[in-house]
Structure formats: C-alpha cells, structure tokens
C-alpha cells in the first residue's frame, strides 16, 4: 500500500497502465506524455541528472490494486489522477517532499489537498496561487465552421519546424505556461515527425496551427492551437482545429480531446461550436516562495 515511484516509463505503464485506461479521457495527459516518452529516443527519459528526469508513480490500495497515478516533468506541475485528498497529501508531504515542484494539476479538491500538504512540509513558506482553471472537452460530432474561412489545411513538414517552434513558444508565453522559457524546437520537431501539427494556410502563408498528441489507446488530444495576433478574428483557429480533429478521426481515434482555459470565453465557445462537449474541470495551482 502507498506510493511507488520510478523513472522508467515501461515499468510505470506495466503497473499503472490498466488503471489509466479505465478513464482514458480523464487521464489523457499522463497517457499521451508517457506515450511520447515511450516512442521517443531510446533512453531519453533516463539520461542526465536524475532531478531533471520525469518521475512517475502509482498508488497501491490495501488489496494491491492501483488506485491512482502521477507524472512530474521538471519545470511543470505534478499531474495527478483522481485520488482521495489524503492520498494526494501523502504524495506531496512524503513521496515528493524533496523534489522541486512548481505546482499541481488535478481536480480542485485533490489539488487543494496536495497544496496544503506541500505548504505544511515546507513550513508554510510557500505561496499557492491559481495558475489556471481548465476544462477538458471531448469531440461528440464534428461540425465544420460555416462559413469556412479562406485557405486550406495541410500537415506540417520538416521545413516548418522553425515556424512551429516559434509559434509553440509564442503560445506558451501568451498563456503563461510554467515552462514558457523552455526551448520548443525539440518538441516541434517531434510533433512534426509523426504528422502531429496541422497548418492552416491562406494567401500563400501559414496563418494558424493545431498540434496533436500521438494516439494512444484510441485517444489523442489537440493542442496547442495558435493563431498569430495579426491573423485573428477570421476563423482560422476554428478551421485548423476542425481539420486536426478530422485527421484524428480518420486515423482511427475514438476520442478526440482538448483542454481550454476557462478564463477565455472565446476559445470555449469556438470549440463547442465545432462539436466539443465538456468532460471535467481541473485546476493548476502554482507554488511560489512566500
């Protein structure tokens, strides 16, 4: 009983995979990130300083079955599944107490329990702030924007990697991602390598992009979606999201998912208009020196 941790994605998926797959939509972040780790360069998740590697873990119930899981990639919040508040508190106060953790991403009650334990173990010298309230959406039935904007969709190619990296960076800065300072070139190249970026092109130039994760267990997630400020208000974001969603369906995905920031009513309404329906809400809490 209790939390068990590993830096080995294969070991983690062997233990926690069946549990995660029972709620594949709600566990989309952990499933898609571990799939990227598994499919990435051999040994990449094990290289370098141990403190800089992703850490994964699962909670074992008294009977031995897995009842929770987490993923922590340095610079980013801990992503935690649905667990009891006491289980979240043990993760923060014992299992991760010596690790640098900038925040937590979980259901509100779970995140609050984690944050309270984190403050306690650090003697109260930690500020806790709401970084983002977000909503998970699942595609019900795709509805293309009508009228459609000018232009058409295409899959990003190797030559697009610098542009995709620049726009990934601009997106991260604009939405204040905790890892906004990270170099996005490797992420852009990896996404492009498996066709995971859709470009909307109009007037002979790219005007919007939509990323997509690798498909795992019949599920994939759209994001980020970015339209540079000079091209906004013309429907390009809706169109590129619809095109990326259509591509996931054609590739056999049973669930196409995406997250929105609840503070952005525009994106929430856009995604609902093209067929996305709410699944659950989560909160990202940020920890700072108090």
What is the gyration radius calculated from CA atoms? 19 Å
Number of separate helices: 8
* CA(first)-CA(last) distance: 34 Å
What class, by secondary structure content? alpha+beta
Biggest β-sheet: strands ordered side by side in the sheet = 1-2-3-4-5-12-6-11-10-9-8-7
Q: In the CATH hierarchy, what is the superfamily of the largest domain?
A: Gcn5-related N-acetyltransferase (GNAT)
Q: Catalogue the unreliable spans.
A: 42-47
Describe the structure.
- With 290 residues, the protein is an alpha+beta fold.
- Helix content is 34%, strand content 30%.
- The protein has a twelve-stranded mixed sheet with strand order 1-2-3-4-5-12-6-11-10-9-8-7, with helices on both faces.
- The two termini are 34 Å apart.
- 40% of the residues are buried.
- The model is unreliable at 42-47 (pLDDT under 50).
Concise overview:
With 290 residues, the protein is α+β, with helices and mostly antiparallel strands. The chain is 34% helix and 30% strand.
Key attributes of the depicted protein:
2 domains; 30% strand; single chain; 290 residues; Aminopeptidase; 34% helix; globular; 8 helices; alpha+beta; twelve-stranded mixed β-sheet
